[in-house]
Amino acid sequence: MTNTVLDSTNRNCIWESALRKAQREEELSLQEVTALLESNEEQTWELFATADEIRRRYVGDEIHLRGIIEFSNYCQRNCLYCGLRRGNKSLQRYRMPLEEIVECARMASGIGFKTVVLQSGEDPWYTIERIEQMVRAVKSVADVAITLSIGERPHDEYRRMRMAGADRYLLKHETADEGLYRALHPDCTYSERLRCLRRLKEVGFQVGAGSMVGLPGQTTQMMAKDILLLRDLDVDMAGIGPFIPNPDTPLGEAPGGTVEMTLKMIALARIVTKDAHIPATTALSTIDALGREKAWRAGANVVMPNLTPIRYREHYRIYPNKACLFDETRHCWTCLHRRIASVGRRVSTDYGHSQRSSGMKPASSSGEQESSTLGYQRSNPIGGSLATQYGGPEQHG
Ligand code: SF4
Predict the structure, then answer these.
(1) Ligand 1 site, residue 91, Cβ cutoff 6 A
(2) Is the CB of 248 under 6 A from ligand 1?
(3) What is the pLDDT of residues 7-49, one digit of tens each?
(4) Residue 18 lies in a domain
(5) pTM of this prediction?
């Protein structure tokens, strides 16, 4: 036999053994995750079926809708792949007024959303006091869980956000390869990102990490490291989407990530984390109109429609041509119900908390005080006038 045949036979043996281990829910090594990510076309279907079965067993047939409110596109960082980077002078910057953020959340809750994700660039204009006020204000009018996605902050602030009533925090690690992380993030360090993720866990957040697929210079083994990091961090949520080049960034000419590899990563994230909440990302549906349905069949159980008022949305341009950019919230709600039914699943009507923190319940819309898992008392909702300190749409300086 030639070396090529031997290599291929050896690869198939590792793949077979890795898949059987995944089916028996045994822990996978870096080599095994890498082999599964390198599944050929035929093997890929078996991989997806395995992930789908683990999804069904651990998180059931419900799909959770988390509505995103992109409240500021200012960012102090300069990540090479992201259109919100401070170096992008062509982006019109905005901050939503607090009243508008709260009204979006109230409307979302009225329609039936049980989670809102408050997301922004890393915008230091939002002091901890402003973030606390935003969280309390949303909780006072909307019966929803709150996920914050606002980047790295001083560690003591995470506890205050949690105490103000925020339930979850998303902080994607983007890549678990330290060299690639350094190359893509000129003003952040991988070690600080991990410290933030661990601190978020310590203060009682349900924590989400996640990565991009198809970054320039990224190998399959680096992606396998992304998957194993999700396990090491014991994440409650895992967001995985394709890298989509943005022409307004230094990586504008690079090739993007593929649908197939993104789906394999979602499948591996499910196999390895078992019960984490995993979205079918908007980035995936941007490169494939049926990306959501494919992701739900490969292990995902969440979708995150955009609730940001339409006039701001085109300015939150991490990558171009975002799917459903101008769809009204009610239209999204109806459309997603139909899509979810089309894959034989149903929309969840509960908060969709992490299964590891069952029993957690977000504050009621009456604003009454409740104990949290940290044992503190939630404090009162917004007190009027600070809302006026929030600005409207602005041009970048
Ligand atoms: S990835 Fe996040 S931190 Fe980096 S530039 Fe974009 S919004 Fe800012």
Answers:
(1) no
(2) no
(3) 888 889 999 999 999 999 999 999 999 999 999 999 999 999 9
(4) yes
(5) 0.89
